[in-house]
Write a structure and sequence with these properties.
heterodimer, A: alpha/beta, Helix Hairpins, Rossmann fold, 4-stranded antiparallel beta sheet, 16 helices, 10 strands, B: 187 residues, alpha+beta, Jelly Rolls, 5-stranded mixed beta sheet, 4 helices, cNMP-bd_dom (chain B), cNMP-bd_dom_sf (chain B), RmlC-like_jellyroll (chain B), Cyclic nucleotide-binding domain-containing protein (chain B)
Chain lengths: 459, 187
């Protein structure tokens, strides 16, 4: 019986429990030592003191972003611009006329309201009433300037007013025409920034949405683009109360439709095999996936595109279409089956990790604190272990794509380099390939991380 | 009028020669003047003369095929400007330089003609300021080298150095063009 309690691997036969405890103790000492390092202390400072400074910085950024947003609306939106002009002109004319024709407007208040001694605000309000009546060309005539100077100012105001009213009317008309041309189902642009677009509908979409709903860090704004019946989609998505889901019942290969879904502002575009309108025995048309990827990249090269393909033959087409990530659902199946034979327990581990539904459990990608940049893997590992009790499994590394310009550098004659750049750009060929993510699992202790790394931890 | 031996010695290719040897070269070179915009060398033509620029600025350019809105067309692309510093140009350049301006006391162009019969000019050279220059002919230089073999070593070494540099740049250009070719094929 005592033999059954021994470690089963032959390599550990000569290790007594005492020795194992010693190894554990030694490592603990090492981790304790690492935990005392200045970098780790700096991280703690980063977690506390710098958070307040960062919050102030964030607030400043938010204020300047709000100003910038208003400025952009003013510059881009004719209607807003002319409305601002109109309000300013009304306020200006009210102020000027209140000063120039104070007695006239004050007496008018007395006449209408029966107030013997109307105050300044009553008079100002009465003049504002005159401004609005004049501006809107209603012209009741209940009150009007009487002095020559007041009338002269009124003429100038009315001439300016004529121009602005014409512009404002034109802007309103053009907005109405544009709305009519775009259709009635135009989405509210302000809501969509960094959102997820899912093109195509199949049984995996609700599963994707379920995972998104449990992850607090991912976007909650989703646009589904497919031609499946709206009622069916409504039923399927009604359970995801925490997600803001919009359904566009249109053909997602169409550029106009992708633009309507604000692809240029999306954080991620996911293309799935589309079962819309198919009978149970029919296979989805994967050419649509390739075509959609090409269209998406033509609209926005920067928006990351993830494509789910069933047929491996389409992988090369998608790579040529510059897709960022390709997911093939069946590619892991042979490995999992084989592992049941060679390494029992490993497939169960995968199941456990992938199907983990608790928000704060399983494999997750987390930021590495900035002060730890440039440190080695063993220190980062010690930080996560003792600070958060997480196991550092590896790193997700953002690799910049191949850049022809970087590759050429300063070599050869500038004439030829310039010619290559000009000609390729002229032909619409981007000189660099897109950024992509690679994974480094369990690197050596002295592996150095930089700001391109994010930690993959087991929580 | 012939240039002085000192003027010849300012040119890189002849800088290592003793002054009496420079005097022999100066004796076969005649100083001339070239107005602004005039071509000193024309790309594609053959020639057996080296141009020695004593004063002024020139622009070196090459004809290249480029794609324009109307289709493919040939356009002249500037590569570099060369300017003397001793003495500097008598006037300001006719146009602002869009490429690097390399300054030298004096300089020679078309040096491959000192070793090759009918060497093909690989670029256009146009005066961007009034230029004072002289022409050194291959047969006259060869005759001087025959009579004074000591001249040959330093001069041919400089010509060989320029040729090797050109070869290295051309090799890198081929590498860059090949990369660009494969890159564009895969996009």
């Amino acid at each position: 019986m005592s033999e059954l309690n021994q470690p089963e691997s032959g390599a550990t036969d000569d290790l007594s429990i005492d020795k194992l405890e010693k190894v554990v103790e030694t490592n603990k000492d090492l981790y304790d030592e690492l935990n005392k390092l200045t970098e780790v202390e700096a991280v703690e400072a980063f977690d506390t003191g710098e958070e307040a400074a960062a919050a102030v910085q964030e607030e400043k950024k938010a204020v300047s972003a709000a100003f910038l947003k208003i400025k952009n609306i003013y510059l881009d939106n004719d209607l807003f611009r002319y409305a601002v002009w109109s309000i300013l002109l009304m306020l200006l004319s009210t102020t000027v006329l209140t000063i120039v024709e104070y007695d006239t407007f004050r007496d008018s208040v007395s006449g209408h309201l029966g107030k013997d001694n109307p105050n300044f605000f009553d008079t100002f309000y009465n003049t504002f009433w005159w401004s609005v009546v004049t501006f809107t060309t209603v012209g009741y005539g209940d009150v009007s300037p009487v002095t020559h100077f007041g009338k002269l100012l009124s003429i100038i105001i009315m001439l300016l007013n004529f121009g602005i009213v014409t512009l404002l009317g034109g802007a309103v008309a053009s907005v109405l025409v544009a709305e009519r041309l775009k259709g009635d189902d135009k989405l509210d642009e302000s809501k969509f920034n960094g959102h997820l677009i899912i093109a195509g509908w199949n049984s995996s979409v609700p599963a994707v949405l379920r995972i998104l709903q449990t992850d607090k860090n991912s976007t909650s704004v989703v646009i589904l683009v497919n031609e499946t019946d709206g009622e069916l989609i409504e039923r399927a998505i009604s359970v995801f109360e925490d997600l803001d889901i919009t359904h566009l019942c249109e053909n997602f290969t169409n550029e106009t439709v992708l633009r309507k879904a604000f692809l240029d502002k999306a954080g991620m575009f996911m293309i799935l095999p589309d079962n819309s309108g198919l009978l149970p025995h029919e296979e989805p048309d994967e050419d649509k996936t390739v075509l959609t990827c090409l269209t998406a990249k033509a609209i926005s090269e920067d928006c990351p595109v993830v494509a789910h393909v069933l047929n491996p033959e389409n992988v090369s087409h998608l790579q040529r279409a510059n897709v960022n990530e390709i997911v093939m659902p069946d590619e892991h199946v042979p490995h999992l089956l084989a592992k049941h034979v060679t390494n029992p327990g490993v497939p169960q581990l995968f199941d456990e990790l992938i199907n983990q539904e608790e928000d704060d459990k399983g494999i997750q990608q987390v930021e590495i604190p900035r002060p730890l940049m440039g440190q080695t893997h063993n220190k980062i590992s010690a930080y996560f272990k003792f600070k958060h009790q997480w196991l550092l499994v590896g790193y997700a590394i953002r690799k910049s794509g191949f850049s022809l310009e970087d590759q050429m550098g300063e070599s050869g004659s500038p004439l030829i380099r310039d010619m290559i750049t000009e000609q390729l750009e002229g032909a619409g060929i981007k000189l660099s390939s897109d950024e992509h993510v690679v994974v480094e699992i369990n690197p050596p202790d002295d592996y150095v991380i930089d700001d391109k790394h994010r930690a993959l931890v087991l929580r | 009028m012939n240039p002085s031996p000192e003027q010849i010695k300012k040119i890189n290719h002849f800088s290592k020669l003793p002054i009496d040897m420079c005097a022999k070269i100066a004796a076969v070179v005649e100083i001339d003047n070239c107005p602004v915009k005039e071509e000193l060398l024309t790309e594609g033509e053959t020639g057996d003369t080296m141009v020695l620029v004593f004063q002024g600025q020139v622009e070196v350019s090459k004809s290249m095929m480029v794609k324009a809105a109307s289709g493919f067309t040939t356009s002249r692309k500037s590569i570099i400007r060369l300017e003397t510093t001793d003495p500097p140009p008598a006037e300001d350049p006719i146009s602002e330089a869009t490429v690097a301006v390399v300054q030298l006391p004096a300089f020679g162009i078309g040096e491959f003609s000192l070793v090759l019969d009918d060497a093909i000019r690989t670029a256009h050279v146009v005066a961007t300021t009034p230029v004072q220059y002289g022409i050194l002919k291959l047969d006259e230089f060869s005759k001087i080298v025959e009579e004074n073999p000591a001249i040959g070593g330093p001069v041919y070494f400089e010509v060989a150095k320029a040729a090797v540099n050109n070869l290295a740049t051309a090799s890198q250009d081929i590498s860059n063009l090949t990369q660009a070719f494969f890159f564009s094929l895969t996009r």
